[in-house]
Amino acid sequence: MKISSGILFPAAVVSFTVAAALGLGSPEVRQYSVPEPLFVTDTVVYVQDAYKLKRVGNLEDIRIADSLLADVPDTTAAEEPLDTLPKLTARDTIHPPEWLRLTDPWRYKYYVALIDSLTHVIVRDSLRHSSDSLKIQADTLLARIPPDSLGAFALREHARLDSLDWRKIDSVYVADSTHVADSIFLAWYNSLSRKERRAYDEKMALPAKLARLDSIQKAKEARQALRDSLEEFTPRILLTYAIPDSMQYKRIIEWTVDQDNHNLNAHEPDTTYNYHFNDYPIFRNDVNATWLGVAGSPAQYYNFFNRTSDERVPFYDAQEMWSFSPRTLPHYNTKTPHTELAYYGTILAGDEKESDNLHIFTTQNITPELNFALTYDRFGGGGILESETTTNKTFAARVNYLGRKYLAHFGYIYNMVDRKENGGITDRAWIRDTTVEPREIPVNLSGASSKIVKHTWFLEQQYRVPFEFIKDLLNRQQADTTVLAQADSLTMDAEGLEDYPEDPDSEDAPAAEEEASEPLDTLDRNVTTFFIGHSSEWSRYARNYTDNITNLKGAEYYHDLFNYGNASSDSLGTMKLDNKLFLRLQPWGSESIVSRIDVGVGDELRHYFDSTSLRPTTHAENSFYLYTGAQGQIRNYFYWDAKAKVNLLGYKIGDTEIEGGASFNFYPFRRARKSPVTVSGRFGSTLLTPDYYTRVLNTNHYMWQNDFGKISTTTIRGRIDVPRWKLSADVGYALLANNIWYDTLGFVQQNATPMSIISASVRKEFVAGPMHFDNRVLFQYSSQPDIVPLPLVALNLRWYVQIPVQPGVMTMQVGANAFYNTQWYAPAWNPALGVFQAQNQNLYENGPFFDLFLNIQWKRLCLFIKYQNVGRGWPMERKDYFTADRYIYTIDGMEGLKLGMFWPFYFSTDRHVMGHSSGGGGGGSSMSGGGRSGGGGGSSRSSRRN
Fold first, then answer.
1. What is the CATH number of the domain that holds 338?
2. Separation CA 218–CA 224 (nearest Å)
3. 302 and 442 share a domain?
């Protein structure tokens, strides 16, 4: 047993191994073929027990096949396991209703495919592939039979109709699904409450709204980009009748307006360092002035002919040069935005004595015709003496329009002057004979103050009506005459007559007439034109003065005049409403010998307010006036103008104003053919009723009732200008009768004796290499100096060395600016009345005192440093640097070290200049827009304050 068992087991193992190696008894490898359906027509009959079919592989690979299956050998070595589990399809659970068999056989046939999504895909794909098979079979059969036979036609039609079923199933399935979805949605939507419906509607509408807003925003951005592109590359050309063509292409122009006839005095603004060296208007417009030593304080020009009262409000006359009126406010038109920043002050003087002056200005054109501008000016400081702090603020906003037929100016002006009044020093010896701290010098008043507020609204508009029909008529007559003359030269033959139309308005009118009637691209000023204009101004001026005098010095200052006690609170006020309406006729061209004839009417209403602690009063005066004028020119050689005004009704009946002038231009320089020599002269005569406050006044320190006559003033002036030689000179004569003045006690008086005033001034700048000697000299004579005191001689000498540090980039001036005048009884200031009055106790020589300066033009930046009043009156033995009776100029040291800066910002219209100096402040040329470079600007720029 052991032997058999030990032999049999190994023998069995060996025998099985040998049999396996020889292949004996190996299992047969069978191949099962998976039937693949043939593509046939959609004649499939769907068996209800379709789940019994065998499925192989994934569901996506199964296709509906016909009952005939073909065995195709499988290329795979092994066979996937068969899925023999029974499957349940949509056809097993969904049955079409029997009634549909008769009503809609097609829908009955494809009922399940139209409801179930999976069955829909299977049937659609099967039909699509079967239609392709039918087309192939049809093409094969058509190749065997004649194409024109009925059989071929039936075969093609059967293939076409059968191929449409799968498309129809798709469309019907989508329609049915949409209908079902809509039904479900409507049922759900109707079940919602009103609030829930509103919330759902807003939620659903939000994407559409956002998309719409986004599309609108994109459209706006596209339009804006288009507008910006057009604006960038479209020339901004001003085309207007109001200013000459030579000024319309300037980068920026400036002008003032005459309210009577809307005459514009246009020029380029000066942004150079020579003009802005004089930071106060009193020094720009005159050799010197009587003022109280603090910026923004009351002032009166030395030159008598500059003492014109534009506002005609006595208590405001001394403040006019620091602010604007509708007649002195500059208007602008600019091709690019223009901004100016300026500061002038003694920043090292300390808070108590610091002079702090600021200028901010900006202007921009909205269109080439429409411009707006904003100006803010502040003058003021703590002052050198005690109790003379001054704040003078001006704000002006205006809009102007210069069109082809319409001109308009509209604006608002605000001015406020707040000042502490000290009445000046008690004794001049504190300045002349000693050296003390100025704040320790005693003054006449303490605790006194005054405040002035002015509001002005103005409107000026004008409409132009050119009589172009007259010119058209003349051109048509000229054309007719030309054609008739040609016809006569041709003996009026029939052919020529046929070519000439009987109707001059027909399309065959002569070419000369067409050209004459054709509109021009430029504005035609040489045509008879009618203008109608209107001006309106509303202004309100108010002044309040307060004090509380409890010491002897204050009582002596007012000569012990107290009508209502030691404390004063005096208010003066004037309201002015002035309306004008005028007509203008331009008979021929705008540059004719008689280019304009004006006639207008106006009405001026004034209300006066006088208030004390006991009796407030009001008073009204109304006047109706007529004015007329004319002007003309002969090319650029001769200009003339004349104007007259007479009051016909009202309180000022009989008041008259007459003025006229003429100027001649010569061009004698061969090397500067466009540089003129101008000789001009003016004549003026006025007869005016004195102001209400000079006739009636009721305050604590002054009270009067006067019956004054009309004031007569006659002036004659002549002037010569030679810009090439930097020379200008003028002479003037004035005859005064019944002129108003304030005596040494401060009471108003009327001078019954006629008096004369003669004035002559010269300005000449000598240049010797780098040395410049800019000299201004004023000579004056008054026949009655106790009534109208004037210095016989006044000098302003600005001598300096001009150094071109880098040509075109930086220029520097180093020198001195000196002031001097001969002895005279300088006017005294009356704080209670707000006017200058006469005094006959103190003679003032006012100098010489001078300022050392460094003046720089760095590209567009104007910068200066002044060391004022060097030596305090040196080299004179007695110090004399008074600006008015008992008021002093600033002193040296840190109190007199002034820093000034003027910086304009704008883009140059010259791209080549802009590219050359791109590093300049604000871009553009370093000197572009500089305008005139004459030293100081001269009196012709009196309208410009900064």
1. 2.40.170
2. 10
3. yes
Q: Which of these, 684, 677, 686, lies nearest to 652 by C-alpha position?
A: 686
In whole angstroms, give the CA distance from residue 68 to residue 36.
10
In a domain, 613, yes or no: yes
Q: How far apart are CA 378 and CA 903, in angstroms?
A: 16
- How many separate domains does the chain show? 4
Last residue of a domain, one of 188, 209, 224: 188
75 in a structural domain: no
Helical segments of 82-149, H only: 90-93, 99-103, 105-109, 111-115, 117-142
Closest C-alpha among 294, 277, 309, 286 to residue 392: 294
Q: What is the mean pLDDT of the chain?
A: 82
| pTM of the entire predicted model | 0.72
Note whether 433 and 340 are same-domain residues.
yes
Higher pLDDT, 121 or 427: 427
Residues 119 and 125: beta-carbon distance below 8 Å: no
Instruction: Report how far residue 166's alpha carbon sits from residue 173's, in angstroms, rounded to the nearest whole number.
Output: 10
Same domain, 425 and 574: yes
Asked whether residue 33 is assigned to any structural domain, the reply reads no
pLDDT of residue 591: 86
Looking at the predicted structure, is the pLDDT value of residue 386 above 60? yes
Residues 641 and 693 both lie in one domain? yes
Residue-wise pLDDT tens digits, 586-622: 998 888 999 999 999 999 999 998 765 456 778 999 9
The answer to whether position 370 is within a domain reads yes
- Top pLDDT among 940 and 380 is at 380
Can you give the residue range of the structural domain that contains 208? 192-233
Residue 890's nearest CA partner among 421, 380, 438, 436 is: 438
203 and 274 share one domain: no
pLDDT band at 436 (very low <50, low <70, confident <90, very high): confident
- 921 pLDDT higher than 50: no
Name the one residue in this structure whose structure tokens are 């009166």.
Answer: 300
Same domain, 410 and 324: yes
pLDDT for 126: 77
pLDDT bracket for residue 113 (50, 70, 90): confident
Q: Facing residues of 760 across strands?
A: 731, 779
Residues 85, 90, 93, CA angle at the centre, nearest 5°? 95
- What distance in Å separates the CA atoms of residue 127 and residue 44, rounded to the nearest whole number? 10
CA distances 716 to 578, 661, 685, 731, 791, Å, are 28, 10, 9, 8, 20
Q: Tell me what pLDDT residue 131 has.
A: 59
Question: What percent of the chain is modeled with pLDDT above 70?
Answer: 76
Which neighbouring-strand residues pair with 392? Answer: 379, 417
Residues 815 and 319: their CA atoms lie apart, in Å, by: 31
Q: Are 922 and 860 in contact (CB under 8 A)?
A: yes
Q: Which residue has the tokens 């080549």?
A: 912
- Cα 382 from Cα 136, distance rounded (Å): 110
Beta-carbon contacts of residue 35 (< 8 Å; ≥ 6 apart): 65, 69, 70, 71, 72
Nearest-angstrom CA–CA distance, 903 and 271: 8
Last residue of a domain, one of 517, 544, 579: 517
Q: Which two tokens stand for residue 605?
A: 């209403």
Do both 170 and 196 map to the same domain? no
Mean predicted confidence (pLDDT) in 822-842? 96
Residues 384 and 414 in one domain: yes
Q: Is the peptide bond before 848 cis (omega within 30 degrees of 0)?
A: yes
262 Cα distance to chain centroid: 23
